[in-house]
Structure formats: structure tokens, C-alpha cells
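Components:
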Amino acid sequence: MSTTGTAAPATGAAVGHRVIGTSVRRHEDDRLLRGLGRFADDVDRIGQAHARVVRSGSAHAEILGIDTAQARGVPGVLTVITGADLAGIPPIPIRLPRGDEPAESLQPVLAADRVRYVGEPVAVVVAEDPYTAEDAAELVVVDLRELPAAVEATGTKPAATLEAGYGDVAEAFAAAEHVVELELEVGRHAAVPLETRGLVAEYDVAARTLQVWGATKVPVFNRGVLARMLGMPQERIRLHAMDAGGGFGARGEFYPEDLLIPWLARHLRRPVKWTEDRAESLVALNHSRQQRHRVAAAFDADGRLLALRDEIVHDNGAYLRTHGLLVPELTIGMLPGPYRVPAYHAAVDVVLTNKTPCGTYRAPGRYEGTFAREHLLDVAADRIGLDRAELRRRNLLRADEMPHVRPLRALGTDVVLDAGDYPGLLGTALERTLPWRAEAERLRAEGRTAGFGFAVFLEKSGLGPHETADVLVEPSGLVRVHSGGTSLGQGIETALAQIAADRLGVDDTAVHVVNGDTELQPFGLGSWASRSTVLAGNAVDLAAQAVVERARQVAALMLDVPQAWVEQDGAGFAAGGRRVELAEVAAACAPGSRYLEAGTAPGLQARRVFEADHMTYPYGVHVALVDIDRGTGHVSVLRYLVAYEVGRAVNPALVEGQLLGGVAQGLGGAVYENFHYDEQGQPQATTFMDYLLPTAAEVPGVVEALVTEDAPSPDNPLGVKGAGEGGITAVGAAVANAVRDALGLSGDVGHLPLGPGRVAELAN
Amino acid sequence: MKDQHLISLTVNGEPHEVLAESRRTLADVLRHDLGYTGTHLGCEHGICGACTVLVDGVPARSCLMFGVQADGAEIGTVEGLADGDRLSDLQEAFSRRHGLQCGFCTPGFLMLAEAFLAENPGATREEIREAVSANLCRCTGYQGIVEAVTEVAESRRERA
Ligand code: FES
Ligand code: FES
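Structure:
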């Protein structure tokens, strides 16, 4: 069951034709349901060879030598390369650098003298077929001298320390009536998309051009990096974004393989294909989340927050790669969440350990910080003797305090909370779940260990600085959109088609969206941080408006009336009872047409850029009802509600889908998923038998999604806020609070995930 | 020396002959030798179910079978579900109920559900939820998948 508010009409859109706000059928579905999607491994090029990466089996060791002779001798092997072959190629860059990252913490493409985690690439074998490449890779002998492995972040010297805050925190704590301090940990879990990575690269010797298939997320950025590393002009490189089997932050960033496969294709003058296997993926793709918080809050006698303080240790694994210090920065930038926090200080030690490097995972920094803050608030409410919801009501920013400027920065932009009614949404969510409290009581009366928990959170979305879109109308009536967004399964093709259709007055099925092709849209910044609908969507909106304006000019010539008389009417233009269709206008823009004024560009098309100074801040509430088996320690989540304010839903079904999917993922990190290591730094979760993704049996049978559109963002014309992350942000917090409630703990749950061992321990 | 075997198999009613190494998985034979790339590989160790196809009507993990084991078999893959332009009722229901996002797991779920409904026409929503827990999806949270299969089970029962 779900509810969606009614959207305000778009400014100046064609009357009687509302595509925005409608749950139209996804454009992606037809091909995906027929097995006609194009995923990375579906690409085959004539004459292609296959690469297999040789990875370190040791967490920390000095490389004394690499013997490739035996591997080279295997029939069908074309080449074996090691770090020595890539001398002069710089390390993996950080996509969103702050500028203060220590240079020595970057990851080399192939480790040359030292390996720092199990799974680190040390060599690549290329062979005629993938089976042979895999066999030969086993024969590469890496001579290592073992070094002690750092597995524990606490107590290890940090590579960087970040701080954020304002106000006099020490004074506030000194004056406080109540002080609550907790030590909480979040386990190491990650995006783990169902499709592993894959790349196919082909070099055209005659044209000196390189094509790469499979780089879906930030293809334009990756093209720039590749061009610099290969010493090629970026215009000679074309990256094709494709269907991708989920991204969630991790997939599609620039990893070592993104240099290795194109480098090999150019070197061998043959197409080279690489498909990551699951065992590789679980140690190679960015991990995330692992943090320890010492979080404290000071309250006055009425339970009003005086100050918030947090000391964090962030275990980033072996290198700063792809996202640098972004996750720890977001943790401290977003920790105060939707509350009125008069004084705040947080410091985070970023520690490098001998584990897989970390990057982002859906709601980076917020999943962790929301757990710390919301769990603290529950413990605090109990200690102060206030109702848990009442404590929040007293401290949540009210609608009349918006916009709220917080003297903090996140992702390099000032935090300006744009619009919203946080206590209002909390009230709605709690009212909706009132029967769950009674159900928990009933279950307890039956002797079960049931608990009710909730958490409030603030998200962020729509990070700029810009996004570009082209809208082209063909004489056939087909509309093409070339966007810099990329499709990671979220349905962005459909949402962008709806926006263009809405403006142009056509059916959304007449709009064909091409995302992430670096040739067609060389200015795109990609899909991440819940930015696509906000940035790409508004860019499409601007380009479509420009097309409508141009079409109106031409229509006026065709109808032989002054432009001011011409009205947009559905998929056409009308004046004085006569009308021309948009398709006819497009035809009239062709070279040779008598309506194409001399000196004007042919074609009916426009390219526009949308720029954003601030992010926009959606928010929400998660509520969980859990039932714990005291014997086994298993936590079953019986009911779940996610309430989310999205500003404006372009396609409500897509928003809901994002929320439901996010909840399931969040539950993974709350109860099941954990990348654990032994004392030597050997990863213990390298198959899906050890790394437990939730299945349909673990996710509650019904998750309720409550999507509201009460507070459209004032920062973009469409009023939209991103929906990609709100489903996951507070799952750890809500489940932890429900478990604490079920067990009647006076203290905290300690850490996530709340696996059976931990829960059984807490229960007894 | 590679040991190759000439095998014959029928895929969605189309007969094929293919030379396959003994150790080549059925998934690779289907995807890369015969071009049925709709069947996906998510784990290659039998957990995720993305590679599920029907072998003589029975759902099987094509990553855990060798191509040579399918010699003489009738294979059903996702490409065989639609009737020309017309999607099957199950495919339609997946779209209607938002049972897919990235679509990577979808072929496996469709094949699993087809086989399950054929064998359990009277299945309840709870039984369906349990059955689809055989496969992994990272995007949808499963609700749409369970709803889609339940809806088709009901409508097929009504029609029967
Ligand atoms: S690929 Fe066969 S079960 Fe996962
Ligand atoms: S839809 Fe993406 S894995 Fe299922």
C-alpha cells in the first residue's frame, strides 16, 4: 500500500497533457524482459581476446618478483603484463578530490613493489579464450615477503583527519542537564550489484581511436582519466554506457581494470574483453561503511539539544581511490541531520588498513551517521524520561525555520536545508504505524520478543555543478534526448522521457533517451548521489523548452501569423483555428525548407545546461516492527514503513521502487551483510555463501512506501529532489532501535549488523 | 589438447549443434556460442539464480551445468517467453508491478517463476515468496516480483 500526493502543475507546460507525475510504463522494461538488454558481458567483438587479472592472495607483503614464464608458455596465451610494463602510468585518481588527500595513499594500477590487500591486481594474462586465461593466471608466480597486516582501524595512525563544526561545544556540554554518550560501530558492507563489472575495449589502429563498452556511471569523467593515462586526446576515445545490473555507488568508477583493458587492447591491437567473476568482485569492488563512532549529545532539562559531538574512526581499507575522503566528509557534514543543533563538533580519523579499499555505497555517510544519531536519541529519550518521538519533536527543525543555513559544508557545497516539514512527516509516519505498536504489545503478550523502532533522517541530492542535455525532434515525430545521466537500473530513461514529453506535448513513448554516450553527450557528469532526475531532468526540461520556443517561431512562419498568436496545443501549434504538428515543424527546419530562415541552423534541436549551486535535501522517516527469536538470535522484520518527501515525483512508481529496493539493501547491512577478515587480513566473505544478501524470505512481505510531495525544492524549476537513497538511509537506525525496544535494553546495541551471535548475546 | 564434443540441443524450439569443451558451462554455451545472452551470470556458484534456464522443463542453474550435459536436451531461455511482439502474461505482470529495475536478475526470476507456476498452479502468495527466495535481486526489494507472480498465478487459475 502506498500513497502519493498530488503534484503541482509544471510551470508553463502544455495544457491537458500531464506526463510528469504519472507512473507510465518503464521504457527499459520491454528489452530487459525479453533478454534483449545489453550488459557489458553481452558485447563481443570479432577477434577479441580475454583478460584475467592476477590478484594478491596476501593482505600485506613486499613483492620480491613475479615469474610469468610458465603462464606465457600456455598455448593460447597472448601476453602477461605486470607493474613493470606500466611504468610511468599514474595511480588511480580520486573522482571528487578535496585536494588534501595524501598522494602516497593512491592505488597503483598494478602493484609493483608491495601489495596492500587481498585482491589487489598484480598482473594480467590475456589469452584467446577466458578459460585459458584463467588457467594461465594460476601459473603466474608472485614471490612475496609477508609483512604484518593492519586489520583493526582503531589504534592505527590515520592517513587523514577531518573536522567539522560550529559553536561552543565544550561549554554546552558543561552546562548540560543530561549528557548521553555511546560507542557504536557499523560493519563493512557494500553495494554488491548483481552484475559484476565487465569491459570490452577495441583500438582502431588506422583511425587511432579507442572504444570501450561497459563503463556505465560517469563515462565522461572516465574518458578523461583514460585519455590522460594513455596519452591520447579524449576526443579519440568513445565510452559506451550500457545497461548495468545495478550500481549503488560502487560500479562504474575508474578502477585499475578501466586502464588495464583499454591499455591491453591498444597494446595488442586486438579487442580485449574482461568479465569480473563474483569472487573477484567481492574483494575488488569498493567496500563501504565501516566506522566506529563515539557520539555524544548534551540536552537541557527539557530535552532540548544543546550540542552534538562525535569522534569517528573510518576504516577505509588499503587505499584512497575513486572517492577519496568523501564518505568520512559526508558523515560529519550530514550527522546533525534534520535537527536544530546549536553547537556541533565532529572529527573523523581516516585509517588505511590492509583490506579492500572503500568508496561510496548508497547513502554514504548517512547510513552510518543516521544510525549513530538516531540510536543515541532513543537511548537519550529513555534516560531523560521522555517519549522517543517527543524528544525528536522538540528538536526537529520546524517548517517555519526553513530554509535553514547550517554553518557546515558537504560535498564542497554549503548546507542550506531548502524546504520541508520534518515534524509533520514524523507525525504522519507514526500515525500510520500506530497499530504496529499494539501489534508489538500483542506479540509480547504471547511471549514473543517484538519491538517497534523508528528513525528520522535527512538526505541530500542533486549535486551539481551542472548537467547538459540535448533534445532533438525528428520529422518522423520521434524525439531524441542525449543525456549525461546514466542508467543504473533506476529507470532514468523513462523519467527523462517523461520530462521531455511533458514539455513537448507528445506521448512519452515518442521520446527515445540515450544516456551516457560520450560522443553524443560529451558534457555529461553521470548518475550518482541521487542527482540524475534533479540535474539531468532539469537540463532536459530547459532543452525541451528551447525546442518549443524555436518550434513556435517556425510554426508562426508556417501558419503565417505573428509569433505571439501561436499557442502550443498538445503535440503541435495552433493559431486562428489552424494547426501544425510538431513533426511538421521539424520537417520545416530541414535545409532547403522555405521556412528555414537564411542564416539559421537547420534541425529542430537544442542543447542546454542546468547548473545548481546547492544540493537539495529530501528527508524521511523509517519505521520497523521486529520479532526476535531469543534462541537463535535471528531478527525478523515483520513490518516496515518508509516515508519520504521527494519534492515532486516525476514517476511515482519509480520513486516507490527506489524506496522498496533501498529498504531491502539497508536490511542487509542492518542484519546480514558483513565483510569480515581474519587476523592475517584474509577476507572471509568471498562467495555468496559467506556474504549474505537478503532474499525474498528475509525482506518483510509488505514494505509500505509513503511518498509525499509537500515541499517541492525551490532550487530547481521542476521542484524535484533525488529519490535514490532515502530507502536505505535509516534502515540500520530503525532496525537497531526496534531491536533495542524488543530486548528492553537500557543501553545500546553496540554495532551493526545485528547478526544472530550479537543479538543472542544482547538477549541474555 | 582441448577435448571437444559435438552436442546437439534445442533452444526455445530451435535446434542447434555446437562444439563444446567438456568443462564449458551451459551458461557459456548459451550466451557466447549460441548468442542467447538474455541468460545472465551473477555469481557462477549457484546462489544468485540469474542464470536459471529450463532444461527439459525443469529450472536449472546454467552456471552449474556443463554444456555437454545438455546434449539432446530441450532448453528454455528468456528469449523464448514472448510470442513475437506480445510479451507473456508473466513478463507483462513484472512490468506492471514494477518487478524489475536494472533487469539483470529478471531472466532468472522469469524462468524460475514459469517453472514454479507450471508445477504449483495453486500456489499462494506466501508459497510464491518462498519459491522466489531461491534467486537474488539487489534492486527491487522483491515485493514487485512476488506481486507479479502472485497476480499471474491468480489470473491463470481463473482462466483454467
Ligand atoms: S550465476 Fe548461476 S546461480 Fe548465480
Ligand atoms: S532488478 Fe537489478 S538485480 Fe534484480
